[in-house]
Amino acid sequence: EAGEALAQVARVTEEQFAQLGTRLTGAGSGIAGDLVITTLPGLVPMLRPALGLLAARYPDLTVRVLTEQRIARLQYGEAHLAIRAGQRPSEPDNVVQDLMRGQVTLCASQSYLDRHGRPETDADLSQHRFVTEDDENSRAPYARWLAGLDPKPRIALRSNEAEVRYAAISDGLGMGFHYGRDPDGTLLEVMPPRPEWAFAVWLVTHVDLHRTPKVQAAIAAIKETLRS
Predict the structure, then answer these.
(1) Residues 8-36: pLDDT tens digits?
(2) Is 0.85 topped by the overall pTM?
(3) Rounded CA gap, 75 and 188, in Å?
(4) Is the bond leading into 151 cis (omega within 30 degrees of zero)?
């Protein structure tokens, strides 16, 4: 028990030092050093224009993009800002901004459509194969919609990585939901975006860092590139 207590104290102390370090690097008057952004892997394509803009404007800034499913603890200095999807974040001491609505399209490759044809109605989907999230209880609106179809379509591949799902759809393993850019230009729209498939994207910062020049520069770049 004493060992566990000491380990807990050590973890808390380490977290407090990390928090202090991030706050100190964020609180300077210049826009330089590390800027840590945490997000989901599937949202990185949305951030790419902003990352390029930050690199052009602030050559002394090093942007670190950490992708993970886990929610980063901004109160412990794990990141300067977070880009999250889904329900509105509710952690105390965070500043939460509604960034955008992710519009989702049902897509397939030409090779898949050549083999299986194009569905005309929702009822046709039961005759098709899908690429989707690994988590069968995913809260993503499009994943819930797919899980609610009756009769259910066949699932060709599941993955927790957006890049893997994109590659599988591009390679013709099945149809799937896609948002953002199509870097390979291989996806064809099967069904256009629907409101029930869309998801909310939030920009989250800790109140202690929200108004620092570095964080404000990142927020401005993200919003500017999303508007263009």
Answers:
(1) 444 334 444 544 554 444 445 479 999 99
(2) no
(3) 42
(4) yes
